[in-house]
Amino acid sequence: MTTIAQIHADFLSGKDNALALVERQIDKVNDANGEGSRTFLSLSADAARFAATQSQKRIDDGSARPLEGITVSIKDLFDVAGEVTGAGSTVLRSRPVATLDAPVVARLRAAGAIPFGRTNMVEFAFSGVGINPHFGTPRAAWGRTADGGGRVPGGSSSGAGVSVADGMCVAALGSDTGGSVRIPAAFNGLVGFKPTAYRVPVLGAIPLSFLHDSVGPLATSVNCCARIDAVLADDTYSPLPAPSLSAVRLLNPLGTLWSELDPEVEFACQRAIETLRSKGATVVDARCDALEELFREASALPEQRIIGRLAETFDWHKAHMNVDGVGYDPRVWKRILLAADVTRGEMSQAIAFLRVWKHKMHDALAGFDAFVTPTVACIPPEIAPLIASDDLFFKTNPLILRNTAWVNMMDGCALTLPCHAHGSAPVGLQLVGRHSLDHALLALGAACETALGAR
Q: Looking at residue 303, what is its pLDDT?
């Protein structure tokens, strides 16, 4: 997989040009034997070609911007001027087109990136699995079979992950409320970055949770994610310093996050951690009491602990939609309805619990640079059984989300790195940093990426 830095080098040397890149990617999207029809809900090829032509002019005259000519697919959650924002649903398709770009889309455009099609997603971003019964489910890059079978891409930014993994675009814009950037990145052998939520605006995006929504990139390297994150956050990009791993201290929280793992996940993550140790990192294996408290309380009293974000979702749909379930994915509708009877008191209890718990989690990181954990407990499951069985789906979804959703609850920043052997089932290793220490986490991620022999 090619990085943004390499693409720009090829543009400058004349080895490649922006329009040629776009043409190749349009061909991949339109390939009848590929995943384009399930990955993209729409793509304006002529608009992409025009933008590429303008980018090439800037490259040629020396006025290139930070992401000049870089194609970035846009999750169907974000407003793009002149397009309908559908959130992976059919019930919103009659909405008026957006009159303005969402701020994150506007920032990408201003930095020279080419918004490259609207990607498929879980309806209203309400699952970590990646299935969409309305528009089809793009197959993960690994495990496809000649008879059309395959494995889930991870959600909710399902099309985002496949669009990058299949080379249909350079990078993707996703949202992450409980892992929706990190899960599809892990399931497709990519890097995915969840920033501290406040750093990147969520305006112009259909919400899932006002408490936990964040916006981040999926790409082929940590450096690519850092370049895009700088644009999304309206920061100035500077090359990532590569900290010596001999000065790095990581906390590996034993307990729930290491339970019920697929053998491939346990093997790859344990091997990755041992590799980091061999390169000089100090990795402390220890129980994190605050994290186990969350899982214990969430299991015992879900209505009082984690139902808060579900209640937010119900309230948004009640305010903006005719909440009768007609036209919804039944599995999404079932989860929305879980909040129909949530009381104001229960919401207050959930918010109060999380307020105190966030401090406990940040205290747990005292003396450490980051948590290190498996990103997802399993490798991508097969699509067909999950479509066929509600019981299997509702058993699998929380397992897929388990290792990522707590990061949003503590409002930390997080990065997933591919750590599997080439050709084997995709596995992600997750690094989780404190609130607002995004730059430090990205620098740490780049050092770990190098140590693991990643791209």
A: 41
